[in-house]
Amino acid sequence: MDFEITQEQKMLVETAGDFAKNEFAPVAQELDRKEEYPMDIWKKASELGLIGAWIPEEYGGAGVGFFGNALITEQFAKIDLGISLIVAGTFGCEAIYWGGTEEQKKKYLPLVAQGKAISAGAFTEPDAGTDVAGARTRAVKDGNDYVINGSKMFITNGNVCKFMIALAITNPENEKKYSKHSLIIVESDRPGVTINKIHGKMGVRASNTSDISFEDVRVPRENLVGAKEGLGFYQAMQFFDTTRIMVSAQGVGLAQGALDKSIEYVKERKAFGAPIASFQITQQKIAEMAIRIEAARNLVYKSAHYLDKGEVDPILNAITKYYAGETAVFCANYAVELHGGYGYIDEYDVQRYYRDAKILQIYEGTKEAEVLTIARRLLA
Ligand SMILES: Cc1cc2nc3c(=O)[nH]c(=O)nc-3n(C[C@H](O)[C@H](O)[C@H](O)COP(=O)(O)OP(=O)(O)OC[C@H]3O[C@@H](n4cnc5c(N)ncnc54)[C@H](O)[C@@H]3O)c2cc1C
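# flavin-adenine dinucleotide complex -> structure
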């Protein structure tokens, strides 16, 4: 196993890191306060080839693989998780990449990679999140179309996306719970699609989160992801196996950002006539953060490495997602504690890290869902 990253990957880290420092840092807190989506940053990132960089060159992307994308994501999340979600996210496109037809890949992936469209992945419903196969949205065949009815909840990029990949029941007659659904590409401007922004999130407030309803939405049959119906649940799982690693990279980035800010602060802040960095309890916290980050980063790199080889290990992925989320929450908590009262004030970034970190234990599979995956597979 080679632990070295290539010269090309080092340059990628530098480009993404500089971009985040220059573009995210000055506006992150303001966007968080206003719940404002940074469309200009998204545009600039796409001009630099940083959006959907994992997408292969033949489909218009930079072709850096999922490992390269994890490196970019980590650099972005180090500065701000909310903006990194927007800029690093290619929601739903991973499902087209793994399960779509060649025509679909050629049509949709370049749109996202080249900054011509934003995508969304619409799986969660008001009554079904962890229970993915409990999704009740229906897509009924009618001539050469599907007619879709139902609703989706908490969809990232809902209000800004040009198209979304939606999970819907196409085969209710199938007796197997996991073979009733399909993934369908739905353009957001189709009649019958209603999208509402959800306000008041605890964290990642610059990112857009929406609820979506479908009322007799007509899409052509060719929008079915892949050539066959009934594969939607499995395609969704394959999608999550990819995006969980990117979410884990977000966790490592956020945790590293919290550590960096803490190191800077404890060296400057004095109490009892000495920098607080000189106190053993402070040192313990700094060291513990570093230990966990290093372990989480190694998990992310290992999982991303296997993902690029096409060898997905669901147990490893679940361990990675679980541990990276825990690490982010743990480090953001210590960062606030090390900042004392200032850590509680929105002039300091660490309070935002603290609020943002929690989502990493909720979306793309809750931490409980990861535990279930690990335990069920080990005990099967
Ligand atoms: C900011 C944000 C962005 C999001 N973006 C997207 C998106 O782009 N696309 C999308 O489709 N979804 C998105 N989601 C939804 C997210 O993935 C779900 O909220 C998450 O999967 C949990 O589903 P739920 O909210 O229905 O909770 P539930 O499934 O109702 O879970 C509630 C609690 O019960 C636990 N639980 C559930 N089942 C079990 C079980 N069998 N055993 C033990 N415990 C269990 C859960 O772990 C959790 O603690 C987003 C959510 C947020 C908040």
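# post-check
The longest strand covers residues 145-156.
Residues 119-232 form a domain with the Butyryl-CoA Dehydrogenase, subunit A; domain 2 fold (CATH 2.40.110.10).
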